[in-house]
Structure formats: C-alpha cells, structure tokens
Design brief:
This protein is an alpha+beta fold and about 230 residues long. It is about 25% helix and about 25% strand. The protein is globular. The C terminus is likely disordered.
Amino acid sequence: MKASRTRPERLWHRPFRRSDRRCAAPEGQATRLPALTGGPYRTVRPHPPATRAVRTPEAPSRLSLPDGTGLLLRPAGPADRAAALAMHGRCSPASLRQRYHGPVRDAGRYLDHLLDPRHGHSFAVAAPDGRLVALGHLMWDDGEAELAVLVEDAWQRHGLGLALLRRLSAAARSADVRTVYAVTHGTNTGLIAAMRRLDAPLDFLAEDGTLVITATLAAGDPADCARRPGR
C-alpha cells in the first residue's frame, strides 16, 4: 500500500511517530530499522526514484554569517556518519523532537539510512573547525520527496535551515521531482517560516499537532536556486 502525504492516516498512526515512516531497504529486500520513538514500525521495498540522477552541481558553497563567520555547505554521505552523530549529541531534546517527532533512540543506525545515497540526497553545513552544525535530507518517496533539516541549537536562527532547504529543493528539481514535503510539529515556527521563503506554492495539512507542508516547485535552473543564500 502506497503511503500518501495527502492522507496522513496511511503514513502514520495518530499521533505521528517517526518510527512509522516508510523505510527502503538495499537490494530490493524488506528490512527493519530501529524504532526511534517507540511503538510499531513498518517497512517497504525501495522506491524507483532512489536511482534518480541528480544534476545539481556538487561543488561546496560558502555561507557567511552576519558576524563574518564562514561556513561550508556541501554534499553529505556515509563518511559523515560519525560527525553527524556527534552533532546529534550536541542538539537539545527539543530540537531532536521537532526533527524526529519524538524522543530519539539509536540515531546512529537511522543515520545509516538517511546518509545512504540510494535512498535520497543529503547536505551538511560545516563550521570553520570542520564540525557539522546542520544536516538536510531529501528522501525519495515515489514521485515526490520528503525534506528534513536539523540545525544544532547554537547555530539556529542564522538561515542555515533555509539554505539547506533551497539546496535540497534544487536537488529535487534536478531529479525532475516537483512535489516536496516536510513533516513537522505545528509549533515548529522556524521550519514553517523557512518553507514559506522557498518561493513555491505551499499546502498545509494539520492533524493532531502534526503539520505536513507541501511545496510545488516550479521548473527552473536548479543550480541558480542552489546558489541563493539563506538569510
């Protein structure tokens, strides 16, 4: 049964639990990933879009904060697992709850899935000392894709989430995906504001405190969209 963002009861149980999200397995086999928030979870076979060729330029781009701090926005992959896990350890429970919709358990194994290019596309923002301070994921979901970002608490409210969303949206356009969506809490004003700045028509679906924000991306030059800095 195909999960649908327009019918949330088919994608999660009420209330929403991250552990109910569909998970693709390598080599076309069903698998089980750890339940991050407790409760039941289900698995499906991988989606055909997992093999999409993304034409967005992979060159890292520079981000400058108002205080002059220079950051690097770059593609992320399996080699970044340890740094990503360390970043999760520096995030507050509140930030992790907004990202994963509940208390996070065993995030390391889940990062194996998120950073696997067979299931999507990931980007990271690195501080001058090389530490990862923000992560963004584009996860293929049949003809659509899910957007997800996590910004370390000390680096929030600097436009990093918006910069990641723009780069991920450019990757979706490059893969000929025009519908992307984010699942979050209705109280996540930062993500809501960032989605509103994507210059794309938005649809909102709220249920039991969970909010699904769907953006319809216009055709255009994905490289040009990716170069737009977060502000």
